[in-house]
Design goal:
- The chain contains 2 helices and 3 strands.
- It is an alpha+beta fold and about 80 residues long.
- The protein has a 3-stranded mixed beta sheet, covered by helices on one side.
- The longest helix has 13 residues.
- It catalyses: S-ubiquitinyl-[E2 ubiquitin-conjugating enzyme]-L-cysteine + [acceptor protein]-L-lysine = [E2 ubiquitin-conjugating enzyme]-L-cysteine + N(6)-ubiquitinyl-[acceptor protein]-L-lysine.
- Its EC number is 2.3.2.26.
- InterPro entries: E3A/B/C-like, HECT_dom, Hect_E3_ubiquitin_ligase.
Length: about 80
């Protein structure tokens, strides 16, 4: 999926809880992708466990649905932040 800079920051916040690149750099920033095994995957949005850096990504029937659901989930995410 190709994302612009704003979408990339939203995705980083969705996955890790922060839209900031870790101090140790992205080369050491790892995460796992798990299948939540949804009965109707096209009706489910992806979700993330930020502490464990696990992205729960259903097996969507198309790339179009994947992009739509992932962008929607990242845009409506409420991440932790410092005020």
């Amino acid at each position: 999926i190709i994302m612009n800079q704003q979408e990339t920051l939203l995705y980083l916040a969705f996955l890790s809880g922060s839209d900031r690149i870790p101090g140790y750099g992205l080369e050491y920033f790892t995460f796992c992708i798990a299948d939540p095994q949804a009965e109707k995957p096209d009706e489910v949005y992806p979700f993330a466990n930020t502490c464990s850096r696990i992205l729960f990504l259903p097996r969507y029937s198309s790339k179009r649905i994947l992009k739509k659901k992932l962008l929607c989930a990242t845009e409506h995410n409420e991440s932790f932040g410092l005020c």
